[in-house]
């Protein structure tokens, strides 16, 4: 029995490490390419033009999060008997919901044009609404792959699309120094993602398997959607606050600093949460698996701490060398934002833990608190300057996420000890 448990723990460790390695490797290649593209953008476009593109992409990301309705998490956590019926219902929900999100984005573009007179940003946002008509055809396949713990396949597809996006962006920027060069690749690479996802998982709806209760699926996903919306608001409304209070040029500098610094860590943190969520669901939270998960999380904290420290101390060296002297003013921003690295990892881990334990509503409430505190602190700081605004966002984020992560970890350990006893 002991030998069987030991083998199971080793298998679980390898499963998590393999998923992390797949996502980490894909993200590393992605980030190398992205840095090269950021170099091109930084040298070809002035902060004002970068700011226009940043405004458009921020609104796009804020709108796109509405597509994360939480149905995918229902597929991942479904039992074998209920899987096919849930997938049959999910595909219809995805098509309807993504179409509604496209309409919402077109309405936002209209407001941007009519009320704020941002003609170029409105046009680009309207064009990006086309992305939503490629998503539904591959979402069920994506979540089925994740449920089967084929995270390496999902990571490869995502990385291929993103790298293609970056390469097209770089080529367009060199030939055409215009914000459209940053926007168009998002739409052009959407069909690539769809084709790869459908080839990786050949699922198609079969009415013979029946349909799950749509209301039950939507209720499950409501809290997850709320959490994802709040996360997107926290990650994108900051840019709108900077734009509104400090101007488009300041937004360009902040957008550059975010992507050249904490954006890398934030994406890796999200990938970390994505990897451990199916594991937590499928292992039914058994006490004998806790050691493997603790080991992975501890290693993640050390790795993220080292990466954050490297960004902080090396920014004065690599920014002028790689991106050019005109971005030197962004160095303090990169250093300040890098301080949020480890808390972002803790937040992603806590979110995965709560969702897997059926506490998505609590996850949503915690997300609301983080969002409110971080953006309020940024709003106050923005009245004093760009650096103070970034510091406010970091302080709010670090304070709240670290606090509730410690509380959750303490309660988890206590519960586990009771379970073992």
SS field, number of helical segments: 17
- What does the average pLDDT come to? 83
- Globally, the shape reads globular
Describe the sheet with the most strands. none
Q: How many domains in all?
A: 1
C-alpha termini separation: 18 Å
What percent of residues are in strands?
under 5%
Helix content: over 70%
SS elements, strand count = 0
In terms of structural class, how would the helical and strand content be classed?
A: mainly alpha
Task: Pick out the low-confidence regions.
Answer: 1-5, 417-421
What's the SSE pattern?
HHHHHHHHHHHHHHHHH
**Rg value:** 21 Å
Write the layout of secondary structure elements.
Blueprint: H1 2-44, H2 47-64, H3 71-77, H4 83-114, H5 119-128, H6 136-147, H7 151-175, H8 180-188, H9 190-200, H10 214-246, H11 248-260, H12 262-282, H13 290-323, H14 331-338, H15 341-356, H16 360-382, H17 386-420
Helix pairs in contact: 1-7, 1-12, 1-13, 2-4, 2-5, 2-10, 2-11, 3-4, 3-6, 3-10, 4-5, 4-6, 6-9, 7-8, 7-9, 10-11, 10-16, 11-14, 12-13, 12-15, 13-14, 13-15, 14-17, 15-16, 15-17, 16-17
Structure description:
The protein is mainly α and 421 residues long. The protein has one domain (2-420). Helix content is 83%, strand content 0%. It has 17 helices and no strands. 48% of the residues are buried. Mean pLDDT is 83; it is low at 1-5 and 417-421.
In short:
It is built from 17 helices and no strands. With 421 residues, the protein is mainly alpha-helical. It is globular.
């Amino acid at each position: 029995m002991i030998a069987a448990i030991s083998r199971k723990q080793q298998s679980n460790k390898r499963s998590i490490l393999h998923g992390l390695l797949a996502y980490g490797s894909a993200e590393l290649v992605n980030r190398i390419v992205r840095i090269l593209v950021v170099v091109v953008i930084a040298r070809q476009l002035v902060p004002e033009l970068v700011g226009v593109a940043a405004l458009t992409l921020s609104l796009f990301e804020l709108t796109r999060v509405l597509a994360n309705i939480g149905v995918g998490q229902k597929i991942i956590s479904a039992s074998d008997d209920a899987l096919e019926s849930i997938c049959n219902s999910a595909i219809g929900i995805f098509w309807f919901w993504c179409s509604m999100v496209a309409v919402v984005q077109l309405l936002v573009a209209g407001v941007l044009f009519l009320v704020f007179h941002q003609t170029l940003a409105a046009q680009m946002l309207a064009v990006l609404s086309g992305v939503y008509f490629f998503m539904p055809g591959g979402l069920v396949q994506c979540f089925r792959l994740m449920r089967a713990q084929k995270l390496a396949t999902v990571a490869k597809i995502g990385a291929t699309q993103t790298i293609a996006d970056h390469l097209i962006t770089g080529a367009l920027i060199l030939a055409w120094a215009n914000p459209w060069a940053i926007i168009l690749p998002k739409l052009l690479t959407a069909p690539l993602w769809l084709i790869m996802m459908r080839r990786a998982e050949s699922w198609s709806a079969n009415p013979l398997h029946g349909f799950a209760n749509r209301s039950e699926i939507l209720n499950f996903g409501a809290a997850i959607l709320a959490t994802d919306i709040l996360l997107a608001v926290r990650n994108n409304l900051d840019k709108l606050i900077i734009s509104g209070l400090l101007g488009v040029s300041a937004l360009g500098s902040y957008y550059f600093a975010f992507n050249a610094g904490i954006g890398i860590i934030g994406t890796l943190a999200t990938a970390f949460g994505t990897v451990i969520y199916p594991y937590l669901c499928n292992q039914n939270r058994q006490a004998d698996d806790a050691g493997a998960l603790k080991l992975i999380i501890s290693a993640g904290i050390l790795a993220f701490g080292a990466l954050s420290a490297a960004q902080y101390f090396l920014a004065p060296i690599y920014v002028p060398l790689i991106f050019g002297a005109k971005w030197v003013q962004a160095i303090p921003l990169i250093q300040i934002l890098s301080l949020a690295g480890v808390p972002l990892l803790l937040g992603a881990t806590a979110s995965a833990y709560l969702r897997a334990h059926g506490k998505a509503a609590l996850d949503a409430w915690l997300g609301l608190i983080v969002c409110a505190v971080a953006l309020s602190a940024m709003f106050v700081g923005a009245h004093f300057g760009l650096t103070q605004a970034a510091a406010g966002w970091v302080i709010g984020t670090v304070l709240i996420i670290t606090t509730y992560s410690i509380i959750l970890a303490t309660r988890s350990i206590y519960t586990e000890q009771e379970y073992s006893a």
